[in-house]
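[step 3/7] fold_predict: job queued, chain A
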Amino acid sequence: MSQYVIMPTMDCDPGDSFPNSRFSKFTPPGWRADRENCYGQYKAAVERIMAILNDVGIGSKMTWFLNERDVGWSKNLRSLILELQAAGHEIGIHTHVGGTFNESRLADPGMRQSAWDIMCKAKAVIEGIIGRECISHRFGCYHQEVFFYDILKQLGYKIVSDVNPGVYLRDMEGYILDNENVPLNAAPWWHDTGNWSDYNSKNGCFLHIPVTASALGEDALLNTLQSTEINGRKLKNITPINGIAEKAAAHNIKYICWHIHPHEIQKMDGGIDEAKAQDLRECLSGIDRKLKPAYMTFSEFYNGYRNINNTSGGTDFKH
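[step 4/7] structure written:
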């Protein structure tokens, strides 16, 4: 039995490859989105990642967080959703809400209703396609807010994944992400809508699976948009996955969740960047070789973990 459990995840945002995206302000200079073929290019990137997962021994143990609001998966990539499901992967939901529904706007009842409608629709349409419940959710830019966790609870989600242990930075939508007081080796914990960073909590409606590592390489959340300090406090960044094995060994991290995005292996014209695809393959192969982990989807982990503390008072996680 391996001492490490890795739960690989993919945040399926539009990234840079989609024209007129809300994310276009982060698009690097020189990007040439192919308006006619952007969805085909995106599908190719996802399928290449699926092939890499099979090559390195991860197989179908990926949880894919679909950004329905910004990509329109149900309309534009329905066949890909079914392809992912048929391969045995887990489908979760990924919602970017922080930039649109900031604190001042949430004072407006109409905006609160709009937020509910967006999150409710995303879950309903994806579940309608896959024919089963989606129980896993991650907010865009790891947004952490009581109001939105209240919506997740009402919608029946059971697993969330937004906390980045040890991290302190400003996210891409302008919010301070302060998880510095959560230890790097914190095991997943149970919590309610208002205590997501209480890693000692043993009861609640959500199982929180913290994010250990993010992005294949350089990322706006890692370095590009950050100064060295925020409000007089030293910046503490997210770790890219090429440092995950060393970080896990150094800090006794047993439960590991990493994530990247499909567009991270795309070129400036939207096609597959073979060098980046190879980087991903080598990085994941290295992690597998160094840690020899067990791989699980979020739901698989949840089913093996839910009797610990939260329900039966058990102490051993069996996998």
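[step 5/7] annotate
The chain has a mean pLDDT of 89.
The CA atoms of residues 155 and 228 lie 39 Å apart.
exit 0
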